[in-house]
Amino acid sequence: MKLLLQNGRVLDPTTGELVHKDILIEGQTIAKIGTDLNAADPETEVIDLSGKFISAGLIDMHVHLREPGFEQKETIETGTRAAARGGFTTVACMPNTRPVIDSAELVKEVIAKAEQAGYARVLPYGAITVREAGQELTDMAAMKEAGIIGVTDDGVGVQSSKMMKEAMRKAHSLGLPVVAHCEDDSLAKGGCVHDGQFAARFRLKGIPNEAEAVHVGRDILLAEDIGVHYHVCHISAAQSVRLVREAKARGQKVTAEVTPHHLLLCDEDIPEPNAMWKMNPPLRSSRDREALIEGLKDGTIDIIATDHAPHTLEEKAAGMERAPFGIVGLETAFPLLYTHLVLRGVLTLAELVDKMTRKPAEIFGLPYGVLAEGKPADLTVIDLEEERTIDPDTFLSKGRNTPFAGWRVKGWPVLTIMNGKITWNQADTALTFGE
């Protein structure tokens, strides 16, 4: 199959400016990038992009697809459809399902279901410990052979330092990164929001910054001598950013991700005890949010990941104290970040795209994330001028749990291509976000 994208705009790699280019895709590969390209083959499908922006396919290294076990919240099919609509061609799914993805058999099952759905490439993480119970290491070697890209007990922190050190040694021997949900239960247990202004006002038990930072510091020390690639999930606290920055300054292989919601919101923005604003880690203080932005800009924080975490509306209706943590993010990440970071001068478009494409591919050793001839034909086409209102009722994800409902944002993905195949085309569907 051949596909020719005409009259699009791409980022010039030297200047960061948008320049007009055509892109020819042959099979699963970008065959040619140039100007005034024509379809020599009459069977080539031609799409006129009318000046829309073309990026390498977006990559999200932290999503929850919920299957197996929580299909009422999300399935691999619905989650990857939402990913494609959001411009993502590759997503990495977390293992805290039921059963936990802690065996080669379950890894293979997830990959097979994603390939059958065909909307986005799914790269599973395997659990660090059996059932994420923190007591026994999983068979990481078998899971690596089955296709995992790293190990994590996301959703819970590995509480035992001894267990984490053993896990790091094993992962390093296999060339696998350790991807850590950093949370000390002795400090965080029972909390539902950040230990700050909002918690005090509504007399809610708070989760202090130290609950995260203590584990970040511990794990950096454990990983230092071993040499394992250590990656911090959904970093949220200023102290954690400082610890990662210091580790990088020493040359240690430490990386970190940050979510759109932690970049754009803080606990002072929460209007009332509404569980649509409940996530883990929680929204921190404005000072923490500023530290995250600074860390993203100076390279301390490497990438942006959504931590897409769908729940049912019934679960979220249980209230701030009893509802589960988490919000969805795949379908809204790029327009939110483009509107509130790029258009406000916090990041350039090139910087934002880099942290959602090339950089995650680089730090996790993936062959994607680059828009160039000879590279995999993973592309995202974005209308930078299109402005819409976020309407959860129109999400393709089963999850409707977002604090961003009603926000009006620009920069919507309109066409997603994975391995040369169109996985989302706004022009071909009647499903649109609220105007």
Short synopsis of the structure:
This protein has 14 helices and 17 strands. It is of the alpha/beta class.
Descriptive notes:
The protein is of the alpha/beta class. It has two domains: 2-54 and 375-428, Urease, subunit C, domain 1, CATH 2.30.40; 57-363, Metal-dependent hydrolases (TIM Barrel, Alpha-Beta Barrel). Helix 1 (76-85) crosses helix 2 and helix 4 (161-174) crosses helix 7. It has 14 helices and 17 strands. Strand 6 (58-63), helix 1 and strand 7 (88-93) form a beta-alpha-beta unit. Strands 3-2-1-4 form a four-stranded mixed sheet, with no helix packed on it. It has a four-stranded antiparallel sheet with strand order 5-15-16-17. Mean pLDDT is 96; it is low at 430-435.
Q: Count the beta strands.
A: 17
Low-pLDDT residue spans:
430-435
Tell me the fraction of residues in β-strands, as a range: 15-25%
CATH architecture of the largest domain: Alpha-Beta Barrel
Strand order of the largest sheet: 3-2-1-4
> What general outline do the C-alpha atoms trace?
globular
> Tally the helices: what do you get?
14
Oligomeric category: single chain
Radius of gyration: 21 Å
Mean pLDDT across all residues, rounded? 96
Under CATH, the topology of the largest domain is which? Answer: TIM Barrel
User: Which percent range fits the helix content?
Assistant: 25-40%
Q: Total domains, how many?
A: 2
End-to-end separation: 35 Å
- Major sheet attributes: 4 strands, mixed
Helix and strand composition category = alpha/beta
User: What is the CATH top level name of the largest domain?
Assistant: Alpha Beta
Question: CATH superfamily of the largest domain, called what?
Answer: Metal-dependent hydrolases
Pfam families: DHOase (PF12890)
Binding site for Zn(2+) 2: 154, 181, 234
Function: Catalyzes the reversible cyclization of carbamoyl aspartate to dihydroorotate.
Family: Belongs to the metallo-dependent hydrolases superfamily. DHOase family. Class I DHOase subfamily.
